[in-house]
Amino acid sequence: MGREGMDADVVIVGGGVVGLHAAYKCALLNMKVLVIDKGRKWCRGYHVPSFHNIPMHPEGISGKDLIESLRRSCAQREDLITIIDFTTVEDVIRSVTPDGPVFTTKAVSSKNDVETSYRSRAVILCTGVIDRQPEIRGALRTILPYANKALAMYCPICDGHLLKGKSVGVLGHAGPARSILSTLRMFQLGSLTLLTNGRELMEGTDAPAEKVEKWKQSLSDHEVPLIKSGITGFFGIEKGVFGVVLDDGTRKEYDHVFVALGWYSMNTGLGTALGGTVDDEGFLRTDEDCRVLDGKGTPIIGLYAAGDIRNTWNQVPIGWGDAEKAVIDIRFEVL
Questions:
Q1: pLDDT digits (tens, 9 = 90+) for 156-201
Q2: Are domains 8-129+266-334 and 134-259 of this chain identical in fold?
Q3: What is the domain partition of the chain in residue ranges?
Q4: Considering only Cβ atoms within 10 Å of each terminal Cβ, which end of the chain, N or C, has fewer?
């Protein structure tokens, strides 16, 4: 297919750990690529205090340092990689031509509110997901200060190995909390407690009563206390604990608390607007090469998704594998 008249071979939406890796792989395969990034603060991985599942960093590396390292790698290939910062993709339009698909990506800079369009043969969506945060006294209250100190956690597969002998709370009441509790049992914790913040188990879901009772029995069997009181505040960051204040004034302290409230946003809108579909959990449906699938299960040629918006384990190495598959498929099947 012809590459003339294109601003890039590939446009990547999202400059997190997966999007940057995809850009670098594009350059290695001699493809011109544009990365459009909303800003580091929007990247879920950027706020991680320490990744321990990166083989070349067994001592751990912060999300910030990991992203800066990836950006330095991309800077070595400025002949092929352009990163457009502080810019939001508002729309992607796909056209079919005799030479194949052409994507027009419309993006707006947050610095000057100017809209610019970019034409490419392929688009990779690396937009990630946004965690739902707890409501305290009916209002959203950020717990990022606790997350930045690794007192609040989100991924037991990432951090469970750090918790031997620790007291751990799980903040949630539905499926995500149940899943995280189950995963945490594989580690030798000091204690494990479920805090539902005033909600009943499975409240707001269509779970049958027998499933709820089964979960209650499982909590009892595994000696996991269930605290259903509402939470009115947090404390303890100054002394390195995650503390919660309950409705009756009771104060509970834990070494760590997992936020298990699911996703606030799946960031799949660009994909579905182009004809992509989502699965029962809200993730973009893709094939093994990370091509986004339409309602008939047919790949949308030229459109890819990598990282957390796919229904896979939320792990950096897996996201990198997604990026590898998508970029290789583009090089041999699209261009």
A1: 999 999 999 999 999 999 999 999 999 999 999 999 999 999 999 9
A2: yes
A3: 8-129+266-334, 134-259
A4: N
Assign domain 134-259 to its CATH superfamily: FAD/NAD(P)-binding domain (3.50.50.60)
Query: Would you state the CATH architecture of domain 8-129+266-334?
Result: 3-Layer(bba) Sandwich (3.50)
And the tokens for 52? 């321990």
